[in-house]
């Protein structure tokens, strides 16, 4: 088991992340450690897909540790991240008379994590919660950092709160049941984090992608455990010193660098009405565009661009994009909510491990269109 501690400027917000293989049976024991001896009730928020696979084990472990667990099942898919679901989860907690010393367990991917975390952030002005991420994306990214929230019909993640978990228990064994496309989606995010982190995490990610090529996921369990832990460590190192993503920060360790690939990624999701891409796939294409653009601006070497493209190629297939209109995507980019002072902020690269935030006003629009067109064609 790999353990790491996320220390934050507010010490009582600090928490532990445990990454291991087959650690789910220790959920009760860990929850007792993290929630304390006064916690009696815990609500396990999950969806049917994940609960059918891992629900009973989780409940059993929690009961053994003296908890009275309550199952709260939400629907599967992004549409569950809504205020309607939040109202239901809050009402269930209230009917069951949950108190401030009780807790919530998020058992599932990023959708469940975001909405269970937000429920925990606002029920009685905040109760503790534990992340048990079961997708690769959630394990390396969304379970770390305390961003919680839901969508509005007008846009994704428009409502939310920063609420740090009391602990994160990551069982890489759960990835064995993950559909291949969801795994790829998480791998694109691994490449993203590797690229902005530096040569070390990037090559560790590449080595894992190569090993996965030749063997099955089951055979790579210990490497997977190390990879997930290394990614959590990187994400924690960013979050630690920029917990709330300060708008004023534009340095190479500000939380905003985690948006690498997201400028185009969000636009691709929006123009295809969230139907064509998994989030990680859109980010995969987005990081191709950002890397290509970095090279065209003379910031990134051809060799580095090549190795990034190679890494993305190893994660899995990307949906077809040759029918998408570059102009519509450019328009969607300019509507991106991650605007600052009226201009879109791109995360570009001055080399692997050296991200730089660049305002669109410093980039010739012709180069953006060119990088986009090239990436849209490359996915075939
Ligand atoms: N809070 C953050 O910092 C942050 C960061 C990145 C993304 N997100 C959010 O995360 C969400 C995407 O998360 P995701 O990619 O995990 O999607 P998801 O939660 O929808 O999970 C993907 C699919 O995999 C299924 N699944 C989950 N675990 C499984 C398992 N072990 N075996 C079999 N099936 C399993 C789910 O039921 C679902 O159908 C988005 O809403 C995004 O906004 C949040």
Q: Can you tell me about this structure?
A:
The protein is α/β, with parallel strands linked by helices and 380 residues long. It contains 13 helices and 12 strands. The strands form 3 sheets. It has a 7-stranded mixed beta sheet, sandwiched between helices. A 3-stranded antiparallel beta sheet has the order 10-11-12. Strands 7-8 form a two-stranded antiparallel sheet. Helix 2 links the parallel strand 3 and strand 4. The longest helix has 20 residues, at 221-240. It is globular, with a radius of gyration of 20 Å. The two termini are 40 Å apart. The mean pLDDT is 94.
Short summary of the structure?
It contains 13 helices and 12 strands. By secondary structure, the chain is α/β, with parallel strands linked by helices.
Descriptors for this entry?
380 residues, alpha/beta, seven-stranded mixed beta sheet, three-stranded antiparallel beta sheet, 13 helices, globular, binds nicotinamide-adenine-dinucleotide
